[in-house]
């Protein structure tokens, strides 16, 4: 018997109230785990029906915790699948579970019932309203509004606060009112298109879906506007009239303030939904560029906001001459409240701000669409009141100073709070196991903690402010101060992308639109050119981007990131032909590494109406990994017809990546940006992945310059970490355990198509840097040696990063030293020596330094083994004489000394060779020959 059957059995045995509550709590936890678990509950025979029977069979007027949790369980099941919701509606379960909503209760009766009764009734009504809201979101039960409205009026209208405060039930009342207005917000989103003559819903809904009617909207707006007359609400009026922080701190100690803020937030959500339903989705509904008419409730809402002190007038020119302007506003109060320590109050304040800005933006937008022609009635405008003039000029414009301060605060917040997301990755993405990956054991709380929730609310508020203050505006001048502001905004957008989770794909979509607007790309181009021009050692870009180039970049980058990160994860096809990387010479078929996330091909799902109102951790890509912005370079094309698109994305990715890397260098060193915090191993891997499909990206000179500049930037990052005693480039550990497969194919491509291209060679050569893990360095060297490509590497001084990173410390890994020796003996280094390739320099340095300088103790057998191999090779190949002489005479460029000391070193090294021969007469004779050659060479030189 499974757990669900056991729970059902216990529920059927008339359990005690405590046991019943625990059993339903278990079912709620199971249902919340995943849609699969919710479906299992629905399919468990008689389980749901047993819960319904117990809900209805008890004393009708009695309210218990188990009843409240039963409604919550049905809400979760309805959210998980639209079919469940439809089943509840058709079978009458929905009506049975919300019958208390139909019951009319006067305000006085409810208050006099007592605090405990108010608490229980509030909790039940809240859950029932939430269940109704879920049904409305699925398109059902919209018509129930007419029957439920009379009983809802008590919760929609402003009550007598004195009685509630006296009986300490204000929080309970505010909770019900908040949910009631959230239901109205959901109903508003089922309204037909406002300017449609047929008044039909044209939003791709199913036949069962119901529509709300605009005739119901007017009274609801009137009720909502009564609530935003804050000066008539005792607790909230004090917030508007605050004069100093101490007085405000005293006012917010009242526990009822936060619930009221949540209530105002839900009212703003409903009003903004109404206004958004009026804004045309496209310009087809506009006549001569303007609205046919403006509904009366639009200016009415705007004027009520202005008259009741919700917005400040500090942005007006006349504000300095008006004693009442800027003396205090709800906006200013909310900006302060979101910064205080109380997490709940901070989140509620940010939600209020978000709703208030949405309403103000919508009113401004609609008035602009209605009056887009130049104002020709100037005399009439002069007779307007201050509020009417402000409404005509724009509500948001009146509070620009406060909004600008808020924007600065949010930029700083998003630029730093993304680091809290790293703690969630303690057990990997999604947590230690499905269902418990919500932060258990994660420092600072997990994804569902108030800590993260607060950061996400701030990120969403930041998105709305970007409509007012874009990243780069037309008026922005590229001065030092202006440039710093732009860089911080871009950094904040990058941080906000990391904060948002599975339910925020639309918010991330909007952030990507902001990030890849043409003005932002123009600024990135300006930053790149300025940096390359001012910094020595960098080559300036020759190509000048035109307007159409920026438009193409904007489209390519935005489309790629949305497709890559906002589409559902798809299982990869099993056919080898669909998995191979598009290359000019694909001999090996599938060469992708299955678990490197950047290289998994994706496809967009067909647009369908969502059947589920919740988002699983599985089958989606949010929250974003820290290295998400590298995907244009590391996402390989999967079929040949995608080659062109792949190149466009890769070229755009080079431009964007170089821009954000250079901008991050201009920020203060102590500021840990999300770009800086990505391990350099991921960045170098992304550059390499671009070349795995060939050199097509280098066909355009501008792309070559961008790629080389990125290599130089990453080389500088490696040089900064030179003194850190750790292997930083852990390709095998951090990227994939079979990274050697990736190396083999990269080297194969290098040997096949590069013809010794310096930029390609620099990228391959970085795998020989001493920061790279030993197994990966060994795999890179062996692949180059086997492909006869060692000579194709550029000189060491032209490789990525400083030469000391390749030369120090002296190699002590036995396998690497043997690989150097094997290549030397096989002749794989002959051409490399003549060309001055980095491969010969590395082999020469590490073999000479190990044999003649650093070897001691238990490494002596290895030294002797290497020396014997090199001497035997010298005895068989006289053409290697010069190579061996170089080995004997080698000194690092920064340690070369005068000739007498040099001669002494050679004598000592010859003696070491004799010791390594271990009495082998044939090898000793070769040492003597070497000694003669060196003496003869010295004599000729003198």
TrEMBL record:
SUPFAM superfamilies: ARM repeat (SSF48371). It holds the Pfam family TPR_RPAP1. Residues 671-854 form the RPAP1/MINIYO-like TPR repeats domain. InterPro entries: ARM-type_fold, MINIYO, TPR_RPAP1/MINIYO-like. It comes from the Eukaryota. This is Transcriptional elongation regulator MINIYO isoform X1.
């Amino acid at each position: 018997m499974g757990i669900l059957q056991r729970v059902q059995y216990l529920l059927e045995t008339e359990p005690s109230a405590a046991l019943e509550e625990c059993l339903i709590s278990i079912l709620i936890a199971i249902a919340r785990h995943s849609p699969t678990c919710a479906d299992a509950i629905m399919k468990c025979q008689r389980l749901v029906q047993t819960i319904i029977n117990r809900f209805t069979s008890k004393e009708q007027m009695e309210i218990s915790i188990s009843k409240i949790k039963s409604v919550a369980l049905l809400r979760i099941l309805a959210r998980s699948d639209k079919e469940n919701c439809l089943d509840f509606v058709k079978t009458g379960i929905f009506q049975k579970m919300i019958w208390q909503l139909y019951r009319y209760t006067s305000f006085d009766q409810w208050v006099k019932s007592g605090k405990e009764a108010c608490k229980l009734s509030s909790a039940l009504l809240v859950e029932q309203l939430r269940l109704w809201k879920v049904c409305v979101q699925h398109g059902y039960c919209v018509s129930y509004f007419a029957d439920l409205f009379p009983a809802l009026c008590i919760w929609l209208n402003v009550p007598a606060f004195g009685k509630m405060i006296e009986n300490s039930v204000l929080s309970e009342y505010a909770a019900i009112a908040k949910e009631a207005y959230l239901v109205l917000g959901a109903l508003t989103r089922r309204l037909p298109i406002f300017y449609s003559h047929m008044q039909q819903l044209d939003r791709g809904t199913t036949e069962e879906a119901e529509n709300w009617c605009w005739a119901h909207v007017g009274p609801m707006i009137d009720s909502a506007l009564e609530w935003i007359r804050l000066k008539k609400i005792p607790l909230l009026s004090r917030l508007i009239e605050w004069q100093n922080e101490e007085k405000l701190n005293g006012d917010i100690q009242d526990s009822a303030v936060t619930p009221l803020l949540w209530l105002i937030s839900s009212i703003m959500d409903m009003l903004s939904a109404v206004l958004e339903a009026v804004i045309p989705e496209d310009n087809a509904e506009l006549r001569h560029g303007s609205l046919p008419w403006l509904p009366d409730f639009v200016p009415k809402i705007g004027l009520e906001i202005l008259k009741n002190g919700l917005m400040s007038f500090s942005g007006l020119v006349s504000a300095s001459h008006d004693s009442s302007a800027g003396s205090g506003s709800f906006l200013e109060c909310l900006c302060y409240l979101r910064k205080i320590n109380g997490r709940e109050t901070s989140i509620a304040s940010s939600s209020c701000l978000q709703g208030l800005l949405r309403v103000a933006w919508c009113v401004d937008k609609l008035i602009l669409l209605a009056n887009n022609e130049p104002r020709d009635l100037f005399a009439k405008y002069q007779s307007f009141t201050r509020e009417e003039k402000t409404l005509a000029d724009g509500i948001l414009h009146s509070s620009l100073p406060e909004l600008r301060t808020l924007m600065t605060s949010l930029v700083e917040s998003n630029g730093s709070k993304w680091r809290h997301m790293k703690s969630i990755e303690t057990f990997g993405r999604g947590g230690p196991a499905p269902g418990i990956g919500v932060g258990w054991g994660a420092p600072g709380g997990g994804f569902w903690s108030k800590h993260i929730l607060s950061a996400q609310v701030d990120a969403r508020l930041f998105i709305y402010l970007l409509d007012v203050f874009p990243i780069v505006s037309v008026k922005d001048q590229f001065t030092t101060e202006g440039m710093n502001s732009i860089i911080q905004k871009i950094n904040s957008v990058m941080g906000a992308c990391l904060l948002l989770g599975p339910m925020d794909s639309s918010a991330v979509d909007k952030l990507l639109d902001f990030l890849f607007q043409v003005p932002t790309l123009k600024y990135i181009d300006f930053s790149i050119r300025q940096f390359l021009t001012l910094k020595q050692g960098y080559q300036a870009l020759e190509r000048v981007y035109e307007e159409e180039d920026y438009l193409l970049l904007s489209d390519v980058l935005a489309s790629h990131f949305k497709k890559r990160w906002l589409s559902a994860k798809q299982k990869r096809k099993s056919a080898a032909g669909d998995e191979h990387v598009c290359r000019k010479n694909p001999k090996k078929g599938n060469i992708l590494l299955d678990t490197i996330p950047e290289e998994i091909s994706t496809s967009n799902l067909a647009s369908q109406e969502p059947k589920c109102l919740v988002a699983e951790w599985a089958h989606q890509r949010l929250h974003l990994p820290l290295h998400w912005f590298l995907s244009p370079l590391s996402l390989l094309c999967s079929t040949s017809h995608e080659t062109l698109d792949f190149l466009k994305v890769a070229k755009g990715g080079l431009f964007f990546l170089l821009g954000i890397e250079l901008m991050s260098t201009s920020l203060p060193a102590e500021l840990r940006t999300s770009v800086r915090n990505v391990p350099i191993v991921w960045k170098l891997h992304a550059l390499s992945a671009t070349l795995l499909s060939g050199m097509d990206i280098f066909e355009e000179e501008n792309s070559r310059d961008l790629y080389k500049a990125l290599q130089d930037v990453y080389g500088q990052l490696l040089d900064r970490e030179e003194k850190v005693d750790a292997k930083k480039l852990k390709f095998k550990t951090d990227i994939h355990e079979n990274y050697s497969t990736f190396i083999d194919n990269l080297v194969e491509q290098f040997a096949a198509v590069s013809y010794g291209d310096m930029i390609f060679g620099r990228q391959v050569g970085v795998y020989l840097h001493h920061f790279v893990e030993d197994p990966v360095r060994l795999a890179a060297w062996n692949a180059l040696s086997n492909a006869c490509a060692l000579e194709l590497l550029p000189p060491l001084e032209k490789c990525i990063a400083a030469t000391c990173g390749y030369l120090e410390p002296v190699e002590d890994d036995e396998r690497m030293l043997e690989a150097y020796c094997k290549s030397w003996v096989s002749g794989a280094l002959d051409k490399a020596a003549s060309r001055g390739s980095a491969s010969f320099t590395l082999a020469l340095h590490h073999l000479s330094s190990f044999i003649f300088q650093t070897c001691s103790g238990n490494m002596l057998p290895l030294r002797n083994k290497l020396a014997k191999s090199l001497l035997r090779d010298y005895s068989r190949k006289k053409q290697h004489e010069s190579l061996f002489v170089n080995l004997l005479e080698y000194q690092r460029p920064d340690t070369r000394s005068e000739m007498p000391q040099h001669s002494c070193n050679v004598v000592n090294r010859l003696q070491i060779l004799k010791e390594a021969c271990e009495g082998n007469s044939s090898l000793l004779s070769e040492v003597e020959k070497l000694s003669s050659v060196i003496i003869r060479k010295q004599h000729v030189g003198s």
